[in-house]
Amino acid sequence: MDAKPLPFPTELEGISAKTLAIHHDKLYAGYIAKLAEVTDKLVALQKSGSAAGNATYSELRALKDAETFAVNGVYLHEWYFDVLGGDPSVSTGQAAPELSKALAEKWGSVADGLKYFSECAMAARGWSVLCWDTKAGALKHYNGDAHNQGGVWGCLPIIVLDVYEHAYFIDFGSDKKAYIEAFWKNFNWSVAEEMYLKARDVLF
Questions:
Q1: Which among 138, 124, 143, 160 is positioned nearest to 204, based on CA atoms?
Q2: Which of 24, 9, 62, 44 is nearest to 167 (CA)?
Q3: pTM of the full predicted structure?
Q4: pLDDT of residue 202
Q5: Residue 89's pLDDT is what?
Q6: Phi, psi at residue 41, to the nearest 5°?
Q7: Do 203 and 137 form a contact (C-beta atoms < 8 A)?
C-alpha cells in the first residue's frame, strides 16, 4: 500500500504547509509503513505454525491489536484528507444537495448539524466521524479516542475529522475550536456528497 498524495495544494486557510507536511508525510505515511511491518509479521507467524493465541498476552494478540490500530490510522487519515481543499465560495446546498438535505432532516438544518458535529469533535480526543449506519439506514455520528476505539461495525464514514493535537497544535496551539472552524472553511462538500451518495443505498 502506497501513501495517497494530498488532493489539494500543500497549504490551506489556517492550516499551514508545515502542519500538513508533518501530518501527511510523516504521521500518515508512518501508519502505512507500520501496517506493512505488522502484516509481514502476522504472515510469518502464521507460516511458522507458532501463532498461539492468549487473551492476556501473546504475540498474536499484540499483532492483531496493532493491525487494527495501524489500518484504521491509514483509512481515517485518508478520509480526513479527502474532504479538505474545498472551494469556500461554493455554497453547501450547491455542492452537496443530497447531503445537505439529509443533515437538515436529521438535525433541523445544515447549520445545526455542523454545530452538533463540531461539539462532538470538541468532546473527542482522536476522531469525530459522520457516517452512514448501514444497519439503521441513517446518518449517525460517532467519536473515537483512538484509531481502533469508538468505531461502529457496519458504518461507512462520510465526514472524518482528526482532532488529535498533532492536527492543529502548530497552527492553533490549544485552541481546538479555532481549528475545527478552519476545517469547515476548507471543507470539500463535493467530495462529501459523493461519499454520501455511495453509502446511502447500502443496507445490511
A1: 138
A2: 24
A3: 0.94
A4: 86
A5: 80
A6: -70, -35
A7: yes
The band of 63, judged by pLDDT with boundaries at 50, 70 and 90, is very high
Q: How far is residue 174's CA from residue 26's CA, in Å, rounded to a whole number?
A: 21
Show the cell assigned to 45: 507467524
CA distance 81 to 151: 18
Structural domains in the chain plus CATH codes: 17-82 (1.10.287), 92-200 (3.55.40.20)
Residue 119, pLDDT above cutoff 80: yes
DSSP secondary structure string for all residues of 42-106: HHHHHHHT-----SSS-HHHHHHHHHHHHHHHHHHHHHHHHTBS--TTS-HHHH-HHHHHHHHHH
What SS3 class is residue 150? coil
- Mean pLDDT for the stretch of residues 35-44: 97
Minimal CA–CA distance to 95: which of 190, 184, 186, 159? 190
Beta-bridge mates of residue 155:
133
- The CA dihedral of 149, 155, 159, 161, to the nearest 10 degrees, is 0
Mean pLDDT of the chain: 95
